[in-house]
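Morning F.,

Quick status update on the modeling queue. The single chain you submitted on Monday has been processed. Sequence for confirmation:
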Amino acid sequence: MALRLVVTLVVVCLFPSGLFAQSSIEPAERLRVYLDCNQCFADFIRDEVNMVEYVRDPAGADVHVLVTSSETGSGGRERTVSLLGIGRFKGIDFKMRALSESGDTEDTQRQRLATVVKIGLLNYLSIDGITGGLTVDIEQAAQPGQSGPANDRWNHWVMSLEGSVAMTGEESSRELDLQGNLGADRITDAWKITMGAEIEYQREDFDLDEDEPLRAIRNERDFDALVARSLTDHWSIGGRTSIDSSSFDNIALRAFGGPAVEYNLFPYSQYTRRQFRIGYAIGPYRARYVEETLFFTRSDTLVQQQASATLDQREPWGSLQAELEYSTFLPDPSRYRLQLEGDVNVRLARGLSLSIEGSTSRIRDQLSLPRRGVTPEEVLLRLRRLRSGYEYDVQIGLTYTFGSIFNTIVNPRFGQ
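Structure tokens below.
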């Protein structure tokens, strides 16, 4: 009897379609859509745009909806919705945008994105003919991103201030973390000017049954600025500078600045889907150290050059992000750093995807390492950087899903 009950439960779980009567309207009769996005209110879209059937794998879809997101110059978000036809709709593609301002609420952003997705899908629904049960309401309203007022008293400048205090503790230890950030950006089609400063102070106290508690203090300060001018749809020029200090890196003050150039293999107009940027910068480098370094010096004056190649691509088959950076000092090119990092996510077959994420570095530019030995306390409390010739980390994952291809229903009970 018990065995018969177990067999019955297994059959019900594996073959529900064969045991229960089907509804009068099959999911297969509706337009099948695969929603491909990160942090795009996917549950809300599936619930709001409900005139189609959502599937969990692009192989079973009629339309692949690919949503990419970028920050606008005013601090808002531009979400690009690419609708790619599959199968009988192959070659029928559309691209639309949903724009939001920095002050928009999350509900405003997701409503606007859902509207754009709905309008885009109507193009495919109209090919098969519009049947009863579908209504469309149109409301004309001003959209963010359209031409603004003739007089902008801020001249496209956007400033931001941020500060935070964090405190944690228990009977034998306490931690205080103070952070402050200041940013100023001016973004237009021709110019990109960004400036940012950050200050961080961390203090930890440990009661070790001694006369005085053990105290660890870390200070970090940095300032970065970039000025870039668009030349063509592939070329840009500009200049960049950075100033920083770090107790962890034994740096009292370090500064770099110089001209920079960048070439994008793809037109910048395709930035939401793919970019391959090659950049180069060179300029004077000046550093002053807290303690004497391994090279018996308290300061350095050199020339630093930096080169980078960045690939960023999102396609129906998956996504790929990779960056290769190389920097060296002149007149001694033996002091260099080569770093490669990236992540890739590829759909290998129906329901099967591969993800690889990692980074590796060849390090030969640790100019600021203190000459004196590092104490065990400084190592354990992460107060001093250790000498290293390389770094690496890697993560590989496989995901396989199977079962029903439909992914339309959203059930919010007990959370997500």
